[in-house]
Amino acid sequence: MAIREIRVIGDDILTKACKEVTKVTQRTQILIDDMLETMYENFGVGLAAPQVGILKQIVVIDVGEGPIVLINPQIVETSGEQTGEEGCLSVPGKWGIVTRPDHVKVRAFDEDMKEFELEGEGLLARALCHEIDHLHGELYTGRVEDGLHDTLAGEDEL
Question: Largest alpha-carbon pair distance within the chain?
């Protein structure tokens, strides 16, 4: 495994839509492993493939309950609302207030290309929405309600 460079705001790749993954190759598995290592090394709770320069629909998340890998994820249901602080490894040193659904149901594929559904509330719902937005070329900065603020050292970022 390897730590990959995280692309930051201003990099065009972060504004592009990602391609669907049709099969998990050895190269895809290496990417997933590297994404997890990169996320943990940078104290993030989520990372999408375009954040490491790869335009594929792959997301990794860990909100403290173990790693989740989502391939070709789609939000199929949302409910409720939560408003809170959000940051991003691709927007270092900044955070903003964002409103997201409080409950999200996602349909995706695992590393064996088996379809599954995942439901999340609170931080997991926020992370799912945030990372799936990356796959469509969207950053949380477009959803910030009160402008960007400077992050205090040591705060987790999505």
Answer: 43
Other C-beta atoms within 10 Å of 84: how many? 12
Distance CA 124, CA 153 (A): 22
Q: Which two structure tokens, joined as six digits, stand for 135?
A: 């796959």
Active site residue 131: yes
At residue 31's C-alpha, the angle toward residues 60 and 10, to 5°, is 75
User: Around Cβ 128, how many Cβ atoms within 10 Å?
Assistant: 28
How many CB atoms are located within 10 Å of the residue 29 CB?
Answer: 12
Can you name the residues that pair with 48 across neighbouring β-strands?
59
Among 5, 20, 115, 131, the one annotated catalytic = 131
pLDDT score for 1:
75
In single-letter form, the type of residue at position 42 comes to N
What whole-number percentage of the chain has pLDDT above 70?
96
The 10s digit of each residue's pLDDT in 115-129 is 999 999 999 999 999
